Amino acid sequence: MPDFRKALERPGLLFFDGGYGTLLQSRGLPPGVSPELFGLERPDIVRRVHEDYVDAGAMILTTNTFGGTRFKLGAGVDATALNRRMAALARDVAGDTAFVAGSVGPTGHFVKPLGPLTLRELVDAFKEQIEGLVQGGADLILAETHFDIAEAKAVVLAAREVCDLPVAVSMTFEGDACLTGSSPAVFASTMENLGVDVVGTNCSAGPEQMVETVRRLAENCTAPIQVEPNAGLPQLDEFNNTVFRMGPEAFAETSRAFVGLGAKILGGCCGTTPEHIKLLRAACDGLQPASRSENGPALRLTARSSLVLVGPSHPSLLIGERINPTGKKALSQELAAGKFSEALRFADEQTQAGCRVLDVNVGAAMVEEAVVLPNLVETLVSRVQTPLCIDSADADAVEAALWRYPASPLVNSISGEPGRMERLGPVVRAFGAPFILLPLVGRKLPATASERIEVIEKLVAQAEAMGVPRRLILVDVLALTVSSKPEAALHCLETIRHCRDRLGLPTVVGLSNISFGLPARELVNAAFLTMAMAAGLSAFIANPNSARMRETMAATEVLLNRDPQAANFIQGYADWKPNAGGSGPGRAAAPTSVDNLREAVVKGAKDRILSMVEAELERGADPLALVDNDLIPAIIEVGELYERKEYFLPQLLLSAETLQTAFSRLKPLLEAQPNAKKKAVVVMATVEGDIHDIGKNIVCLMLRNQGFEVTDLGKDVAADRIVDEAEKLDADIIGLSALMTTTMVRMKDTVDLVREKGLHAKILIGGAVVTEQFCESIGAHGYATDAVSAVKLATKLAKG
Fold this sequence. Notes:
By secondary structure, this protein is α/β, with parallel strands linked by helices. 46% of the residues lie in helices and 14% in strands.
């Protein structure tokens, strides 16, 4: 069997297998039992499913290891051994007729700051799994059904540390974003930077709902596209079982349209069977993936929920320079103490001024950069949605910061300094981090364009020889001051044009360097910016608070035909008057200051809210009034932003944690009041057989923030324990969570037992597979689709 990478290069399509859960259930998998552990006990059943898919024409078999990490398997299970055995089973069936994809699913945990784990801890867990898959004979590693960009990145990092097998990464989306806010464009761009072999999407939707997702993936990467829809949307049958009713013929006919969008690999997910795959392959016989048109060549910077394209055909990028302690005494002192209030203030100020990327530099006396820089990066990740530029001369600090970043940041910089490329080249390649290439070798500055170009070409060749792709390179054209070198600007412009026309590389410049030593520096900077943008400059590092600079940038974008119908210019400068400026990009937004408790919660000012609460209490504010009039309305506003998809899970969690900080201070004062209201009591649990608890944990946090008394029993909890606890606490509400169709049926056990015991508790259920129809069928009092709706429903149920 030829290797998988060669198969990707050949004309034609490749076909994955389909769903496993339904087939395994129909052949003996008990409800709530791990398919992986079941596979150890009954490998004969798993083997037969593999054989059925090979007989149906599947060219790639998926191992029965989706939940094969230590986090899912639990204590006492050797993750490496289990994965080795399941991969060997698939390998034996595949023989020379099919490839084997080692399935790596989510762990059920988030990385910091969203969850308790570090990225390194996730990588180590995935390495255990991937080592077993490789030992068992997998041809590729398949990260599938992921819903957070950081966890998907962890699988890629783990695979690269273990082997050189091809890596395919498939994410599941709900509408236009995944659970933690990444769009298909952000996901595809991040995976492109990481250099994965296949980018895909699976689960969560049927073929019709995936069309736009596939189109966005194809536009934002060059890797082959993989698509594995469900057999339509889930429904309940007359026995309250979740079923997928799209038949093989309809599935095949609908899914063949993905080939016209450029998809190379097709398959099926939940509800699909060997018959679905057989007819899908027949429907696509003779088809070739359509050619794909990207969004123009560009360097790609990503955060969890934003993408910035950098290149001559895209709007010029302003990189904010303010998070830098040089000349800032207060910031230097805070950084030395490990505090970040000033840095966060500069971040808010610059994003409101229109910065789409923030440079982050902590280099100052008494600052241990390898500790402070990664801590600040992690804090900023939870606070701002813009990509970051990690700026340090300390290579260890840069690498440490990359371990705290979920997507593709910019690294500033890699020069020709001895050992710098050797140290950081492999790091940026592994993390898929674009970087600024600084054309400096030794102590002599390359003053002329020809000297700079010579250094640039040598460093680019050195990077490529180390396996660092050109798509990660942003060239600093090295602006020198015209006050001492009158020809400096001309050499800069020539270097910009050479990089654009000859090397095909985007360029960046530190804008203010050009005017050092001159009066009226803003005038010189603005004039040079226009000239540089016209020559092809892609990005510049500057202070975004300069009105003249923003005006120049906006007007030049119009003249370069990069602002269609001058829409952005008109929006920002319709009220412009000479010497008065205009609002400019980003300037019409709300003020960055956090002036009251409500704003602190909405904006997630966790670092400031405690001092604000203390100030209110010192002024004699009533603790209950602060809760009722400020904090509760604030979290309701956050919920509304979340429902409108203006906020995503990271922002929701940060606001919830901010509110929790305030509540922790006010709680003893509220309880000491003579007429303190009795709190509604909630017992929460993930039902028996289900070990997924991310959603439940978020609901618990949100409920506590709304004043509920919450007891969280954890995951895999039997109905009798849930009901006993509810009876003991005289609970008002029982909250049940389940992620899998095989475990949600356990919810009825709790409902029946509550009725049998005559408890007054109302039952609230939730989870990805739960529907209103299922809720009604088991007699629960309500169901919620997310944490925000769960809190609203719990509040309603508690009243009555």
